[in-house]
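Can you give me the bound-state structure? Components:
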Amino acid sequence: MFPKEFKAYLKEIELATPLIDRVEKIYLECTQLGLGVDKNIFVAETIDGEGKRTYQNLWFFGDEDAIEIKNFIGQDDYDQVKIKKQVVYWALRKKEFEIGKPATEKSRASVSFNLKESVSGDFRASKANCEKLVEILTTYFIPNLA
Amino acid sequence: MEKPTEKEYPKWLEEKSGVAIDGSYERYFRSVTKTIREKTEESSYWKSFLGELKNFDATFQINNGGFELDYNTPELCEKSFASFLQKTYRKNFVRWPEPPNGGWILPDNWLERVSDLVRTKITVRYLDGIKYTLEQAEKYFQSVGLRTRQSLEARSEGYYAAHFYFVDSVEIPKKDWDTQVINPWIEIQINTSLKEAISKVTHKAYEVRRLGPGEDNDWKWNHESKDFKMNYLGHILHFIDGTVVEVRKQTITKDIQ
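Here's the bound-state model for the whole set.
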């Protein structure tokens, strides 16, 4: 079953219905693979100068691992990474967004990170998704500094 | 009998229909097209359609490696009276001295026979997005109970156009202040961004040609003529649009490999 809170999050970041259906399908595939990444979700996205939102990578998180589906809209490109006690570096950059306060239409944030074994990545977020990004940072990255 | 000129056309219409085509009629026409546009804009099906475009694009992206159509938000516009008259002139005299198929296009029937009193444009990034959008629009408007039709035009003069039409009943003012219900077609023209970029230049030239004499093939060998450049530009852009789709598809295949 696709968690209700995941669906609510996808609606909040204005994903079109066919894209929500696709995320649900990907989630069910991850479940069938027995990946155990059912604790949280994040969609990296950006907004251009004209206000158009572009969705990039989809992430699911478990207690110890995360799975990334790169360019999830048009590709089936999955990879899984261990994050428990694997974080060696993280950086948060933000604009018009105060941690602990509601994000605004102008809020933007990004997190980049390095894990052991030279794995690195980044997340970008805009508007209310900035709050979700901080939740992901504080739940899965800061506590897992090696 | 000589075919009426454009200047003589209003008089010809008045003789045929008994309706004076003057400033008063033009004001009436504008109030009708404004009513049709406003009623359509206020309709729940039109508002939903604007929202559905996001879903059309999302489905296209899912099935095409994430490449998006990037729809604009279509805004409904009213046809000008001058352009409307010109169109009926062209259509009325296409078989002169015989009337066109369906009979003369006159004030008592022309609001339903000219299919773009109110119209809009949708642009898409890719050529295959045009047929896709036509299919999606047809499914959508039929699902809300409206009649639809569509056409894909391709002329030797390098003119390529896709048109989608839907029809709904609208109550409009009559000239005598009463009202009547008519079923006007609303036109959605669908084009690629590439063709749209030059359509303002080429559209004017097509308008001029549509009023001119019939088929003239001289331009096909006369590289100095305006028609040669404009018409082959139309074909070249269509070819480029098609090639872009092929390259896009190859990119997706390579990504998977």
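A couple of observations. The interface with chain A takes residues 54-55, 57-59, 61-67, 70, 252, 255 of chain B (CB under 8 Å). Chain B is about 50% helix and 15% strand.
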